[in-house]
Design a protein that fits this description.
This protein is α/β, with parallel strands linked by helices and about 300 residues long. It folds into 3 domains: about 50 residues, no CATH class; about 100 residues, Methyltransferase, Methionine Synthase (B12-binding Domains), Chain A, domain 1 (Orthogonal Bundle); about 130 residues, 3-Layer(aba) Sandwich (Rossmann fold), CATH 3.40.50. It is about 55% helix and about 10% strand. The protein contains 14 helices and 7 strands. It has a 5-stranded parallel sheet, sandwiched between helices. Strand 1 and strand 2 form a beta hairpin. The longest helix has 21 residues. The chain is elongated and about 75 Å long. About 35% of the residues are buried.
Length: about 300
């Protein structure tokens, strides 16, 4: 982990800087807490480990160490920071490796998206709005995230397909596709066929797609919306079509925090995050037979 020799570890242990347990045979055993305490105290950086190797451990080794420790302690803030650094640098390999190792450590894909990626991306967006990041850095971060989540998604187990279809997209004027991809990946992991209409899709196209695919579910992800009067008019047609075809409508995204927008998008469920969303589809579609059940009364905004 630390890219140092065995003699360095023994020396730190003998000095008392790195606590250890001794077996009856005299062998050293190190607890995770002892490693974390040593790392946080700066003992590694103050040590003379570089003398063993003719220089300091390489940057890659230091990053691996930081990631290992953050994963072991579930240090979400540190994991967010590590992902942020990889994303704004455009380092797809590092971003994908972080998600892969998180998954291997027992962190689910949904938990990684909600507790690592989403906060990091919110910070990137906020820093871009304040002029602290260049637009190309924001774009690089988006591309890293799309590639990293897709790479992990290909490795995840999936529930058996049960013939269910979901349409997913962002309304016209909304170009934020990361949240949309996360919804699609979540549905596919749950055994759905997810048809992506992509970002920036007019609501009349949503209506046409409902007639074409006859989905059981329509998911609308919106971070920002424009032209509320046009949305109000076009959403009415879409919603009537969805109801006639027996499709349920789920909305999610920052745009729906605006009461005006929320009131336009009449819906069956407003997902606060991926965990909420998964709980909803598992509850409302518990078996193949539930896919043909009539939708419940729509929920409208107060």
């Amino acid at each position: 982990m630390w890219a140092v020799s065995e003699s360095s570890v023994k020396r730190w242990s003998d000095s008392g800087a790195l606590a250890c347990l001794r077996t009856p045979g005299g062998h050293r055993r190190f607890t995770l807490q002892a490693l974390l305490d040593f790392q946080r105290s700066g003992g590694l950086l103050r040590s003379d480990a570089s003398a063993d190797q003719g220089g300091a451990p390489p940057d890659g080794a230091r990053l691996d160490l930081a990631l290992d420790l953050a994963l072991a302690s579930r240090d979400w803030s540190r994991l967010q920071a590590l992902y942020y650094e990889a994303a704004v640098a455009g380092d797809e390999a590092a971003g994908a490796a972080l998600l892969e190792r998180a998954w291997q450590s027992g962190i689910s894909a949904i938990e990684s998206k909600e507790r690592i990626l989403t906060p990091a991306l919110h910070l990137i967006g906020e820093r871009w709005r304040r002029g602290e990041l260049n637009i190309w850095e924001e774009h690089l971060a988006s591309q890293v995230t799309l590639a990293a989540t897709e790479q992990l998604h290909r490795r995840l187990p999936r529930a058996p397909a049960q013939g269910r279809v979901a349409l997913c997209g962002c309304p016209e004027g909304d170009l934020h596709e990361i949240a949309l991809q996360m919804v699609i990946e979540t549905l596919e992991a749950e055994g759905w066929r997810a048809v992506s209409l992509g970002p920036n899709t007019p609501l009349f196209s949503f209506a046409d797609a409902v007639e074409r695919f006859s989905p059981q579910l329509v998911c609308i992800s919106a971070t920002i919306v424009h032209d509320l009067e046009r949305l109000r008019r076009d959403y009415g047609r879409f919603y009537r079509t969805a109801r006639q075809r027996g499709a349920r409508v789920v909305i999610g995204g920052a745009a729906f925090a605006d009461p005006q927008v929320h009131s336009i998008f009449i819906h069956d469920f407003h997902a606060g995050g991926l965990t909420d969303f998964v709980e909803y589809i598992r509850r409302e579609f518990p078996s193949a037979g539930a896919a043909s059940a009539p939708p419940p009364a729509a929920e409208s905004a107060p």
